[in-house]
Structure formats: C-alpha cells, structure tokens
Design goal:
Number of helices: 7
Number of strands: 6
Strand order of the largest sheet: 3-2-1-4-5-6
CATH architecture: 3-Layer(aba) Sandwich
Distance between the termini: 19 Å
Shape: globular
Structural class: alpha/beta
Helix content: 25-40%
Order of helices and strands: EHEHEHHEHEHEH
Number of domains: 1
CATH superfamily: NAD(P)-binding Rossmann-like Domain
CATH topology: Rossmann fold
Largest sheet: 6 strands, parallel
CATH class: Alpha Beta
Length: about 130
C-alpha cells in the first residue's frame, strides 16, 4: 500500500515509521527545507518539499497514485480541502484527517472524509489503515 502524509511534524514522522515497519511505501509532503527531511529519506520515505494544498504537488504520480492520504496540517479547513480535492480528483481514495476542533470530526466524515480524528485523542484507528470501509 502507498500512503501519502501531508505535514504532521512528529505525528507524521511516527506514522511514517510505523507504516515502514509494515512494508508500506510512504510519501511525505512538507513545507520544510531539504536538510530537515534528510532523516526521512534515510528511512526510505519519499519526501516532497512543498505545500499540501498545492495542486501541482498533489498531482504528481507518486502522490496521486497513493492508496491512502493522511492530512495532518494545523488548519482544519486546509485538511478538509486537501482531502476533498483528493476524493474528487483521484477517485475513491481513502482519506484520513486530523481535526483540532473536535466538533468538526463528524461533519468531516459526513462530507466524505473516511476518518476524521481529534488530534488530542490519537489512537489505534489512525494506524489501522487496512480495515474495511463501513
């Protein structure tokens, strides 16, 4: 399975390491310098420098062909916009997003996000990417 993680800081790095342990391929899109992403490259993560909302980056084959997208940006609406763009332009890809405001979680799922999780309550659901859709 190919998973693309958008931003996420330490949470994104941890999820990437776990996915690599299970032999998944991982892309990470981050707005950081090449030097700060060097450790990720050493682990076998494909790093892409740029904005998670950048349509040109999201359209790159290594990203658009991913099976799962995890949006971990700090802004809830940016996460929603990115996930909806992925859903609408690349078919029925699985989308997962962090929400900082817990009242958004159910609303995000109602508009088509597969999993919207409260960033304060990260649990096993975010890691269990292979579960079947409801």
């Amino acid at each position: 399975m190919v998973v693309t993680i958008i931003e996420g800081g330490e949470l994104g790095f941890t999820i990437a390491r776990i996915l690599l342990l299970f032999n998944h391929r991982v892309n990470i899109i981050r707005q950081e310098s090449e030097a700060s992403m060097h450790n990720l490259n050493e682990l076998g993560v494909n790093t892409i420098s740029g904005a998670g909302l950048d349509v040109d980056i999201l359209s790159q084959p290594c990203v658009s062909e991913s099976d799962v997208f995890i949006a971990l940006m700090d802004n809830d609406l940016d996460n929603l916009e990115t996930c909806l763009y992925i859903k609408n332009n690349f078919g029925s890809k699985r989308t997962i997003t962090k929400v900082n405001n817990p009242k958004y979680a159910k609303k995000f799922e109602q508009v088509g996000i597969d999993i919207a999780f409260n960033s304060a309550l990260v649990g096993p659901e975010i890691i269990n990417l292979d579960r079947k859709k409801k």
